[in-house]
């Protein structure tokens, strides 16, 4: 399906969000800004009225409904945008409203396709999407998997989430867990490293504010360099910025001696274990 066709298709759909929290608001704002869907075709509900009332002030044409049942009845695409612990309470009582015509997209972290299928057995295709927090600044990484591997509805997922970042298909299981840890928890890992950089600079006399800016710009600069040098691997780029017997290589050799890569990998594995444990609990 061409991008243009998918765009036209989305424009004709009614899109509903159960839950109008941080992520739903970021998605809605991006969709409206990109003109991907008419504002009148967006429907929202929320447990309490505060967030929808605020969003309605920004986009008055959006439909705020007072109950989830009406939202499901009205919409072609239903997004579960609540916390995982609220999912069952929100969806179980209205499960009977779903039928094959409804495309379901769940943003609830850790809730498997199998559990979603159990919750809304009569729904059409169900997509599980894992987001990360930088989606709020349109630099997110989204992973998705589905009950139907060859679903034509995949184009809706690309259309809905691409305005907020990179969208990657991931098989449920090892691939999905890896994306969850590297990209979603990974945001926290990178912030931890950023903190080390800032601390080190502060210890050497820089004021907190400038040390923070220096650390952030170094991370963004290196990442942007890697992004723009599409023809080079990250390793090749690193070698380009590292002269033999120079300053950088002295530091890098020490990092290798301390087996930073192996130690980081162990931290990732620990997070994977916790992720699997939470999925069972
Ligand atoms: N935000 C991120 O960057 C991010 C990153 C990765 C994954 N996720 C996943 O995305 C999902 C949404 O995250 P979020 O950060 O947007 O959470 P959030 O800000 O807490 O929003 C969740 C919303 O769901 C509403 N809600 C709860 N029960 C409801 C019900 N029965 N009916 C209607 N609405 C209900 C809550 O209403 P109240 O206002 O009344 O509490 C709240 O506004 C979560 O599963 C999270 O794990 C988010």
In words, what does this structure look like?
By secondary structure, the protein is of the alpha/beta class. It has two domains: 3-170, Rossmann fold; 179-280, ProC C-terminal domain-like fold (Orthogonal Bundle). 53% of the residues lie in helices and 12% in strands. It has twelve helices and eight strands. It has helices at residues 3-11, 22-33, 50-58, 68-74, 84-91, 113-119, 154-161, 174-203, 208-228, 234-240, 247-257, 260-280; strands at residues 15-18, 42-45, 63-64, 77-80, 103-106, 126-130, 140-146, 165-169. An eight-stranded mixed β-sheet has the order 3-2-1-4-5-6-7-8, sandwiched between helices. Helix 8 packs across helix 9. The longest helix has 30 residues, at 174-203. The radius of gyration is 22 Å and the shape is elongated. The mean pLDDT is 93. Bound molecules: NADP nicotinamide-adenine-dinucleotide phosphate (NAP). Residues 18-24, 45-48, 51, 68, 81-84, 86, 89-90, 107-109, 131-133, 135-136, 184 line the site of NADP nicotinamide-adenine-dinucleotide phosphate.
